[in-house]
Amino acid sequence: MTVADVSLGMRLKEQAGWNQVEADWRRFLAMQPDGCFVAELDGAPVGTAVGCVFGLVAWVAMVLVDEAVRGRGIGRALVEHAVSFVEGQGARSVRLDATPLGRPVYEKLGFVPQFELTRYAATLDPRSCQPHASLATQASLRLALQDDYEAIFALDYAATYSDRRKFLALLFNERPAQVYVVDRERQVEGYLTIRHGSAAVQLGPCIANAEAGERLFGDACRRLAGARVYLDVPCSHDRAVRLADSAGLEVQRTLTRMCRGAQVCEDVERLWASSGPELG
């Protein structure tokens, strides 16, 4: 895949009803230019896949096939190619978020289910996003500074066991005014990013302890009141699920986080929001 293929990616994601914009495709190409792939059938481009390596952990994402040629093994071939690439780069764990339709395909390729995520979607009602009475604290919620980034990278690694620095650094540099932190005595306890998609504002990733996660979510709700948002939350994260319900968000779909190879799994209690199905 090259920058010239971004229009293909946008066409296919529109067919699938996904939320990415051109900046998301360009970010993949910037992070892992040798891991972005296009499938061709009879000389015509018909599919995409991305394999992104974070040290010993890798992600496979953006597996899209033109609806006119689905059911012909193109998606499986793309996944197999992306997996072969990331494992060839030294990844011992390969992860992805699967739709119910894709899960059986991934299981046949050796991927094992780890946990379920729920995508919530709705237009935020400001009346549903009020501060929680128990959140009086000396910790501060503020816009992240560049000096905070190293602490954010460390916090993210401690919760995800994946070195996502190259992903987060690009995301933060693209949208420095949409990265928020909670810190206490100069120690970062949580962070949240926001990015605008074609259909909704995506909340996440958000990695935080219990108090910081609630504050970051509540603050984002108030600032985005009236906007349509997407939020991907682990089903077992009771606090995050309650916050999503209390904000009036509605379940749109479910995803299964899966892993092939050495099992790596997030500290789910600190995963308040995934980045979306792309990179965990």
| Number of helices, counting only DSSP H or I runs of 4 residues or more | 8
Number of strand segments: 12
Classify the helix fraction into a percent range: 25-40%
Name the helix and strand elements from N-terminus to C-terminus, one letter apiece.
Answer: HHEEEHEHEEHHEEEHEHEE
Characterize the overall form: globular
Would you tell me the structural class of the helices and strands?
alpha+beta
Give the uncertain stretches in residue-range form: 132-136
The largest sheet, given as strand count, sense and whether it forms a barrel, is:
12 strands, mixed
Looking at how many chains there are and whether they match, the oligomeric state comes to single chain
Rg is 18 Å
On the 0 to 100 scale, the average pLDDT is: 94
